[in-house]
Amino acid sequence: MLIQVLKSKLHRVRVTDANLNYIGSVTIDKDLMDAANFIEGEKVQVLNNNNGERIETYVITGERASGIICLNGAAARKFLPGDVVIILSYALMDFEEAKKFKPTIVFPNNNRL
Q: Is 25 a catalytic residue?
């Protein structure tokens, strides 16, 4: 049996930009991506602590050391610069493997490591 478990989490990062005229996705600083074990194109869930919005989208690599967290496309209507968000990804694992798995959880300070 496979179950879905938390793989990676960026906890309480701040949205730096919202770009309505982009195709879609969330742009994340490459340093933050590496720390959280995210890869470009990976499906993520973005939770907005300011208004309760929750979306699913995919990761686009942002400039390293920029601190960028940019919600693109339609999400720009639900996430504003300054909003505090949590970004999560999940993985499918065998039930026994999942019992031993430890997710990567990152607590950035002002969108920096």
A: yes
